[in-house]
Protein backbone atom coordinates (compact mmCIF):
# COMPACT_ATOMS: atom_id res chain seq x y z
CA UNK A 1 0.00 0.00 0.00
CA UNK A 2 1.49 3.33 -1.02
CA UNK A 3 0.74 6.69 0.49
CA UNK A 4 0.26 9.75 -1.69
CA UNK A 5 3.25 12.06 -1.45
CA UNK A 6 2.36 15.64 -0.66
CA UNK A 7 5.07 18.26 -0.77
CA UNK A 8 2.97 20.70 1.27
CA UNK A 9 3.17 18.55 4.44
CA UNK A 10 5.76 19.45 7.08
CA UNK A 11 6.63 17.27 10.05
CA UNK A 12 7.90 19.24 13.05
CA UNK A 13 9.51 17.80 16.17
CA UNK A 14 9.06 19.68 19.43
CA UNK A 15 11.56 19.91 22.29
CA UNK A 16 10.11 16.70 23.80
CA UNK A 17 10.73 14.76 20.60
CA UNK A 18 7.03 14.54 19.68
CA UNK A 19 6.26 14.84 15.98
CA UNK A 20 3.30 16.67 14.47
CA UNK A 21 2.23 17.04 10.85
CA UNK A 22 1.24 20.39 9.36
CA UNK A 23 0.03 21.53 5.99
CA UNK A 24 2.03 24.47 4.64
CA UNK A 25 -0.31 27.37 3.87
CA UNK A 26 1.85 30.44 3.36
CA UNK A 27 5.24 32.09 3.73
CA UNK A 28 5.13 35.70 4.89
CA UNK A 29 7.90 38.27 5.10
CA UNK A 30 7.33 41.37 7.21
CA UNK A 31 10.27 43.72 7.43
CA UNK A 32 13.38 41.71 8.24
CA UNK A 33 11.44 38.77 9.69
CA UNK A 34 10.08 35.67 7.97
CA UNK A 35 7.10 33.61 9.06
CA UNK A 36 5.39 30.39 8.08
CA UNK A 37 1.64 29.75 8.38
CA UNK A 38 0.75 26.10 8.98
CA UNK A 39 -2.43 24.09 9.50
CA UNK A 40 -2.16 21.29 12.09
CA UNK A 41 -3.36 18.04 10.51
CA UNK A 42 -4.17 16.44 13.87
CA UNK A 43 -7.10 18.77 14.61
CA UNK A 44 -10.36 17.07 15.47
CA UNK A 45 -13.25 17.37 13.00
CA UNK A 46 -15.30 19.35 15.51
CA UNK A 47 -12.56 21.95 16.07
CA UNK A 48 -12.47 25.18 14.11
CA UNK A 49 -9.69 25.25 11.53
CA UNK A 50 -7.02 27.17 13.40
CA UNK A 51 -3.66 27.94 11.88
CA UNK A 52 -0.28 28.10 13.59
CA UNK A 53 2.20 30.87 12.85
CA UNK A 54 5.92 30.49 13.50
CA UNK A 55 8.80 32.87 12.99
CA UNK A 56 11.59 31.36 10.89
CA UNK A 57 15.08 31.88 12.33
CA UNK A 58 18.47 30.35 11.60
CA UNK A 59 20.10 28.43 14.44
CA UNK A 60 23.84 28.42 15.11
CA UNK A 61 24.29 25.64 12.50
CA UNK A 62 22.52 27.73 9.86
CA UNK A 63 19.48 25.44 9.83
CA UNK A 64 15.95 26.84 9.98
CA UNK A 65 14.04 26.74 13.25
CA UNK A 66 10.42 27.67 13.78
CA UNK A 67 9.77 29.75 16.89
CA UNK A 68 6.40 30.41 18.49
CA UNK A 69 5.41 34.05 18.57
CA UNK A 70 5.21 35.49 22.08
CA UNK A 71 4.19 39.02 21.01
CA UNK A 72 0.43 39.07 20.36
CA UNK A 73 0.67 42.27 18.28
CA UNK A 74 3.21 40.61 16.00
CA UNK A 75 1.06 37.46 15.80
CA UNK A 76 -2.07 39.43 14.84
CA UNK A 77 -0.15 41.52 12.28
CA UNK A 78 1.11 38.36 10.53
CA UNK A 79 -2.33 36.74 10.72
CA UNK A 80 -4.00 39.85 9.26
CA UNK A 81 -1.58 39.80 6.33
CA UNK A 82 -2.25 36.08 5.84
CA UNK A 83 -6.02 36.72 5.78
CA UNK A 84 -5.62 39.56 3.27
CA UNK A 85 -3.60 37.32 0.98
CA UNK A 86 -6.21 34.55 1.26
CA UNK A 87 -9.01 36.98 0.38
CA UNK A 88 -7.03 38.21 -2.63
CA UNK A 89 -6.49 34.62 -3.78
CA UNK A 90 -10.19 33.85 -3.35
CA UNK A 91 -11.04 36.94 -5.40
CA UNK A 92 -8.64 35.85 -8.14
CA UNK A 93 -10.28 32.41 -8.27
CA UNK A 94 -13.73 33.94 -8.61
CA UNK A 95 -12.53 36.17 -11.46
CA UNK A 96 -11.21 33.12 -13.30
CA UNK A 97 -14.56 31.33 -12.94
CA UNK A 98 -16.46 34.10 -14.72
Keywords:
single chain; 98 residues; alpha+beta
Mean of all residue-level pLDDT scores: 86
Strand percentage lies at: 35-45%
Class by alpha and beta content? alpha+beta
List how many beta strands DSSP finds.
5
| Cross-sheet strand order for the largest sheet | 1-2-3-4-5
Taking the alpha carbons of the first and last residues, their distance comes to 41 Å
Major β-sheet profile: 5 strands, antiparallel
Radius of gyration: 16 Å
Percent helix among the residues?
25-40%
Tally the helices. Answer: 1
User: What is the overall shape?
Assistant: globular
Explain this structure.
The protein has 1 helix and 5 strands. The model has no long low-confidence stretch (mean pLDDT 86). The longest helix is centred in the last third of the chain and has 26 residues, at 72-97. With 98 residues, the chain is of the alpha+beta class.
Short description:
With 98 residues, the chain is α+β, with helices and mostly antiparallel strands. It has one helix and five strands.
Give the topology, please.
Blueprint: E1 9-13, E2 19-30, E3 33-40, E4 52-58, E5 64-68, H1 72-97
Antiparallel strand pairs: 1-2, 2-3, 3-4, 4-5
Amino acid sequence: MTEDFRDDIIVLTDEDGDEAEYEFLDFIQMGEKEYVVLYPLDQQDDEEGEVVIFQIVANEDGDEEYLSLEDEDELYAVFDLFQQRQEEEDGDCEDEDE
